[in-house]
Amino acid sequence: MNPDPVDQARRLARDRFPDALAVLLAGSTAAGRATAGSDLDIAVLVADGGETGRETIRFEGRVVELFIHTRAGLAELFAADAASRRAVLQSMYASGLVLVDTDGAAGCARALAEADLRQGPPALEPQAVETKRYGLTDALDDLADTGDRIERLAVAGFVLNAAAELLCDHHRAWTGSGKWLPRRLLAADAVRGAALLEGHLGLCESGDPALLIDATAAILDLVGGPLREGYRRTWRGVIESLAGTAGR
To answer: Which residue segment(s) compose the domain that 100 sits in?
Structure first.
């Protein structure tokens, strides 16, 4: 019988972080979706003077991802996660299972995380939206034009991510990567998000890009439509890459 992952997390917190201000178990384990191979995502708030960082260990045979921070470090990480428009750590503190709470430290951190999540991510600058529209329009042209199955799959991955980012920004909703992309996408817009995901799945299964092109075109229409001729950018400072626009 596999050991209970919540009990494992409690033992790890007791053994490795006896002086922690707060310890929270997040991820699939906290949500009750853990499998035998699931890792443990654990956020640890330590006293000032400690170190802020991330570490991966193995505890009692299970992989553990540790997110360790002081109060100042937590504030900095919250700000960075908000700027990235993903709010990973905020989600951990808002929904995690509290294992340790010294003098209400976990509750205070959770309140800050929930406030960030309610506020939503910062909106993309209009120029950034325009550039993303241009890159996505070009990628849709590639998707329709290429007859190479490998190229089509590669372009489809770009289209999925770029369209998801524009859709989430339109709704001022948090975005994500990996398995969090479809979760955040459906939370932002259940109808258009599902159409985008089904279009991508359909292309991967059949090679037909039609549904993905239609779903992406609907998202582009929300944010100003396709953009080709008329796009102009004068480079100042850091040059922003336009994936999918070179070599067509």
So the answer is: 5-119
CA 232 – CA 37 distance, rounded (Å): 49
Mean pLDDT along residues 35-52: 89
Say yes or no: 110 and 56 in one domain: yes
| Same-domain check for residues 65 and 100 | yes
Q: Mean pLDDT score of the chain, rounded to an integer?
A: 91
- Are 10 and 113 members of one domain? yes
Q: How confident is the model over 48-75, as pLDDT tens digits?
A: 999 999 999 999 999 999 999 999 999 9
Q: What is the pTM of this model?
A: 0.84
